[in-house]
Every structure is written in C-alpha cells, then in structure tokens.
UniProtKB/TrEMBL annotation:
Name the record gives this protein: Uncharacterized protein
Organism: Mycena rosella (Pink bonnet)
Domain of life, source organism: Eukaryota
Length: 231
C-alpha cells in the first residue's frame, strides 16, 4: 500500500491506517493497493476527512471510508466486489460505493473515472454510475473475463451510456471479452445504435476515433490518452 508515493509502515499496532490518514488532512493523492486493509480499517469506522484530495486509487470498498469534496480522478479496483452478503446501504454494496464516490465529486469539476476488473458487478455499476455521476467527463472501463456475453455487454452500453450527460472521452478496454481486433474495431466504428453520439473521442481496445463533422475517423491512441486525462 502506498500513500502519495510513501509506504505506510506503522511502528505500533494501534497506528492504524485511519489514524495515519487523520494526521494528514492535506493529502492530495492517495494510492491504496491492498484490499486487506479493510481488516485494519473496519467498514463501521467514521469517514476520514481528506478534503484536499484530488486523486484516489484504491479497492472500491475503501471509497466508503473517505470524505472528500473535489475529487478529480478515481481509479477503483472492483475485483473483490461485491460481497455475497452485502445489502443496500452496506459499504460493500455497489450502489453504496457509487453514492459515496458521488459525494466526493462536484458537477462543475471535470471527473475522470477509471474502473478496473468490474466484471462481476458490471451491469449494476454502469447503471448506478449513469444515475449518480452522469456528469463524468472521462470513463475508462476494463474487463477481462467472460461473466457477460458480447451481446449482453453491447445491450448494457446501449442502455446506459447515453445517460452520461457529460461524457466526452470513453475507453472500453474489453479485448478478452469482445474477441478479435476486427470485432472490437467494427463495434466502435458502427456503434450499437447511437451510443457514442455525444462523445468527442473514443477508444475501444486497440484503436481510437475522433468524430469529425458527424463521422468517426481514426485517431492516434497516444493523443487520445493525453486528451482524455487517463493514466
């Protein structure tokens, strides 16, 4: 686990992650790489006030334990979510995590959201994001398993992507789900329905496109990365 580039190494058992963060209210960047920290930082603990926080990288469930106001970038790992016994309102519940994330953001602050390994909760997550943080400017979704068929994935994107009112940059990293490069490229160029209509630039797996006079044209991937703000 790293915090703003420094490793947290408590010298005494009582020096918990929560107390460590409470002593650093001015943190602007927080990177938590170990989901086991929830054993140290129980879900019933008060939310830690980090009101200067701008960048957050962590397992998804950690979000419910942090209070921020102007978050600009979040990269959440959903690989261990959600818990089998999670219920609505529980910090392990997809909806509760997204609502907690919303409380950290502001509609007038451009928000970049990168989602890692969300396969098990993908439909619920996309639906909740479109309801609660529709003003997301940049969205990166990475999936690598076969929890959902290609047709199911297209259906979910068709239903929910148009509900993101502020979405300008989209990267769908689904290469192992969609299959071949040609299949992925074809999906992006044609688009299921008019899913990509509001986007300025999009990327799916291997290639990027920019809309010019209503027509999608190939666009350099490195320029997409720089423009979208994803890292």
């Amino acid at each position: 686990m790293f915090i703003a580039g420094n490793r947290w190494t408590p010298k005494e058992r009582e020096d918990s992650l929560a107390s460590f963060l409470l002593r650093r209210p001015g943190l602007k960047s927080l990177d938590i790489q170990d989901s086991r920290l929830f054993d140290i930082w129980p879900p019933t603990s008060p939310r830690i006030p980090l009101f200067q926080l701008q960048r957050l990288l962590c397992p998804a469930r950690i979000v419910s334990g942090i209070a921020a106001r102007r978050l600009e970038f979040a990269r959440l790992d959903w690989s261990n979510e959600e818990e089998p016994n999670a219920v609505a309102g529980d910090c392990r519940c997809t909806q509760a995590i997204v609502v907690a994330l919303k409380s950290m953001t502001q509609p007038y602050v451009p928000f970049i959201y990168a989602i890692e390994d969300c396969d098990p909760v993908f439909p619920e997550l996309l639906a909740s994001m479109s309801r609660n943080i529709a003003y997301t400017k940049t969205l990166h979704i990475y999936m690598d398993s076969n929890h959902h068929s290609r047709n199911e994935i297209i259906s979910h994107f068709t239903n929910y992507l148009p509900r993101f009112t502020g979405l300008l940059f989209l990267w769908l990293d689904l290469r192992l789900v969609l299959g071949t490069k040609d299949t992925a490229d074809q999906l992006t160029v044609q688009g299921p329905g008019d899913v990509f209509s509001a986007l300025a630039v999009c990327r799916l797996c291997f290639s990027a496109w920019r809309k010019v006079s209503g027509t999608w044209e190939k666009y350099p991937v490195d320029e997409f990365m720089a423009l979208s703000g994803i890292d």
